[in-house]
Design brief:
Blueprint: E1 7-10, E2 15-18, E3 21-24, E4 34-37, E5 51-54, E6 57-59, E7 62-65, E8 67-68, E9 71-72, H1 102-106, H2 119-124, H3 138-150, H4 155-166, H5 170-179, H6 181-188, H7 192-198, H8 200-203, E10 210-213, H9 220-224, E11 234-238, H10 255-268, E12 275-281, H11 287-290, H12 305-323, E13 328-331, H13 336-346, E14 351-354, H14 355-375, E15 384-387, H15 391-408, H16 412-416, E16 419-423, E17 426-427, H17 453-460, E18 464-467, H18 477-486, E19 491-494, H19 506-512, E20 518-521, E21 528-530, E22 533-535, E23 538-539, H20 546-556, H21 563-574, H22 579-583, H23 594-612, H24 624-630
Parallel strand pairs: 10-12, 11-12, 11-13, 13-14, 15-16, 15-18, 18-19, 19-20, 20-23
Antiparallel strand pairs: 1-7, 2-3, 4-5, 6-7, 8-9, 16-17, 21-22
Helix pairs in contact: 3-5, 4-5, 4-7, 5-6, 5-10, 10-20, 14-15, 14-21, 17-18, 20-23, 21-23, 23-24
Length: 641
């Protein structure tokens, strides 16, 4: 694999080659030498089909290769197979040693092209007779596959078909997902991924990602080295304790990291081989799973306390040892009691990000900033009421407060007084402070106790109602009508996932508010016709934020996630909402343009990282948007020699 500019191969007395034939790559040489690259090609007498590149210069243990216009300088050898690597250091090529041809090539998802192999490639790579005689383009394959997907009526069947495609032909999977992102995003991500996690044991066929359980305690560094890819840039990790709004799914939560990372590639352009999904299995408290013979995880109650803390710390230490300072670790679907502690503990030592706390907050803040262009005023002019005071609710509340403080120069403590939260026991007020979890205490304001949400709406009189409760149908008709009585254009965000857990549907929000609500949800809802007008509900989907944020962190070499980077991501997303979107009732741009949106988010995040001195990749590119686009992985097939 060769990047598209001047590259250096940093040899470590390793091997390069395939099958039983290896070329020993010594650490130092005084003359040019040859190294086998991963590129299926034909070579006389070599059925493995290795391609050999001539390396021009060797100095101080590095062999330097000039590559211009997809050929080696002076050598004329075409870049037969390249995985776009722009999301890593442009001057380093970590060579792979795996080469496949013939029958094995067709079963290698990274290199397989199916019927798109040309006549020449079929001859060169021993594919004659292994494929039907027709040659079709990747575009035709995409048309065929989307027709195939549309034949399924059950979303879980579509999910399984997409996962099978990913394990069969990786580039076609990503091309299909990118070209039909609005249609397929709900299949590979929320809401369908929730059902997939619930049934993961019964649909489990081929392992994806890395499983680290209590059995591996003391050996996690060794386990990480079992993963075939060594140049990892993004890890999404879960312990499965709080999967969406579905609760403790234990080891079956793996569907979440797998799905998230497919979006890092499809929407943010991070190359697939740089992504590592991980599930940390410390047991489960889900009795149904413990008694299920098909459950794939440890059949024991969840480890807690010191045993849990030591396992996580060993994992975090081993990740940095294996992949370096700049690897992004995204915490996903940890329960509240661990999520906040882990983010606080490792935020100053690792490049960590919690999507439930920070990603959700950033995407919601972006929606609010866009909505203000419709309802008027600034954030400081509005009053917010949350149903749900967990990691999502408090994370959103804090980011709203930070952005408002930035805009007004007012102290956070003063701004927080305009933000109210309701949990299972009612309105969070100061008289409850002693019994509250630490992350709820900043939101305990002076007020009489209020038990019911509708009463809280009538007393607090919010302009914005946000649901992060994980409890479906809690925005009742009375609640929505109360919001509509108070506000000409109430902002109502029903954010809980999956669809069954949404606080209200889009139809309910528009109908009960007489078509005046500005509505968005966590899971997708269809368009709604009310009083002769069609409303298109927006989706406050984290997929707007984390792929672009991750790309921005990677391309700038950022070493820590600062709150200002999240604010920059929100501002970038809000700026992408057009007047045409507003006219349809949208406060988020359509996903059909998500790659361009991600590039703008990445550019804003990278610019802020450079401004704060957090970026390590120097010098700073002049045009960060253009650079972000150039950094994106492309799933288009590459010609093989």
């Amino acid at each position: 694999m060769i990047s598209s500019s001047r590259c250096s191969f940093l040899s470590n007395s390793g091997y390069a080659g395939s099958g039983s034939s290896f070329s020993r790559v010594q650490r130092r040489h005084s003359a040019p030498f040859r190294v086998v690259a991963v590129a299926p090609t034909s070579r006389s007498g070599d059925r493995n089909g290795s391609v050999v590149m001539d390396l021009k210069d060797i100095k101080d243990g590095s062999a330097v290769l000039d590559v211009e216009n997809n050929s080696t300088a002076g050598g004329g050898v075409q870049d037969a197979y390249v995985e776009d690597r722009a999301t890593e250091d442009q001057f380093v090529t970590p060579w792979s040693v795996s080469v496949a041809s013939g029958y094995s090539l067709l079963r290698d998802p990274h290199h397989n092209k199916g019927l798109a192999f040309s006549e020449r490639e079929r001859d060169a790579h021993y594919l004659r007779g292994l494929l039907p005689p027709t040659v079709i383009s990747q575009e035709t394959q995409v048309k065929k596959m989307i027709q195939h997907m549309r034949q399924y009526d059950v979303p879980l069947h579509k999910y399984m078909a997409m996962m099978n495609l990913q394990e069969t032909n990786e580039r076609l999977f990503y091309k299909l997902l990118i070209d039909h992102v609005e249609e397929l995003l709900p299949v590979v991500y929320t809401p369908t991924v929730g059902e997939a996690c619930q049934k993961y044991g019964s649909i489990f066929l081929k392992p994806q990602g890395l499983y680290i359980s209590l059995k591996e305690k003391g050996r996690i560094h060794e386990v990480l080295r079992n993963w075939p890819e060594k140049d990892i840039q993004v890890i999404v990790v879960t312990d499965g304790e709080r999967i969406l709004g579905l609760g403790d799914l234990g080891c079956q939560g793996m569907g979440i990291p797998v799905g998230k990372l497919s979006l890092y590639t499809a929407l943010g352009g991070v190359r697939p081989s740089a992504c590592l999904p991980i599930t940390i299995d410390v047991g489960t408290n889900n009795e149904k799973l413990l008694n299920d013979e098909l459950y794939i995880g440890l059949k024991q109650r969840r480890a807690t306390g010191q045993e849990y803390t030591e396992l996580i710390h060993e994992f975090m230490t081993a990740v940095k040892q294996n992949y370096g300072e700049n690897v992004l670790i995204q915490f996903e679907d940890f329960a509240n009691h661990n999520a906040f502690d882990l983010l606080e503990k490792y935020g100053s030592t690792h490049l960590v990000f919690n999507d439930d706390i920070q990603g959700t907050a950033s995407v919601v803040l972006a929606g609010l900033m866009a909505a203000l262009k419709v309802v008027g005023g600034n954030l400081a002019d509005h009053r917010f009421l949350f149903l749900g005071a967990g990691e999502a609710g408090t994370g959103i509340a804090e980011l709203i407060a930070l952005e408002t403080s930035k805009q007004t120069n007012m102290p956070l403590e003063e701004i927080r007084k305009n933000i109210w939260l309701v949990d299972s026991k009612g309105l969070i007020v100061s008289s409850r402070k002693e019994s509250l979890q630490h992350f709820k205490k900043p939101w305990a304001h002076e007020h009489e106790p209020v038990k019911e949400l509708v009463d809280a709406v009538n007393k607090i009189k919010p302009t914005v109602l946000i649901g992060t409760s994980g409890q479906g149908r809690t925005f009742t008709k009375e609640v929505v009508e109360a919001m509509a009585d108070i506000n000409e254009k109430p902002i109502i965000l029903a954010l809980s996932n999956p669809t069954s857990q949404a606080e209200c549907t889009a139809e309910e929000a528009y109908k009960w508010s007489q078509g005046r609500a500005i509505f968005a949800s966590g899971s997708p809802f269809p368009a709604v016709e009310y009083d002769g007008k069609v409303f298109v509900p927006g989706q406050a989907n984290n997929a707007y934020i984390f792929p672009g944020l991750g790309l921005g962190l990677i391309m700038s070499g950022t070493i820590r996630v600062h709150n200002d980077l999240l604010l920059a991501a929100s501002e970038a997303l809000a700026s992408q909402v057009s007047q045409d979107n507003f006219d349809k009732g949208l406060i988020y741009p359509p996903f059909s343009n998500i790659r361009n949106i991600s590039a703008h988010i990445a550019a804003k995040v990278a610019a802020k990282a450079y401004e704060l001195g957090l970026a390590t990749r120097l010098p700073q590119p002049k045009d960060l948007v253009q650079y972000a686009h150039s950094c994106m992985y492309s799933p288009t097939y590459r010609p093989y020699r």
